[in-house]
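Quick log. Single chain, no ligands specified.
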Amino acid sequence: MQITINGDSREIHPGWTVADLLGHLDLRGRPCAVEVNRNVIPHRRHTDHVLSHQDEVEVVTLVGGG
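-> predicted structure:
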């Protein structure tokens, strides 16, 4: 199944949730914001929001530094 993540086309397994995607990207448990098709997906819905073919996903993480 094809989706776009931060502008890059990616192949993922059908039935993946936002939480599955974040785990695959090594972001599970890290502070981040997720938007699917321009709709913010709250953290509490990451485990039940199933991604669909051709979804456009934006993932924003916090980066510390100084």
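The longest strand covers residues 56-61.
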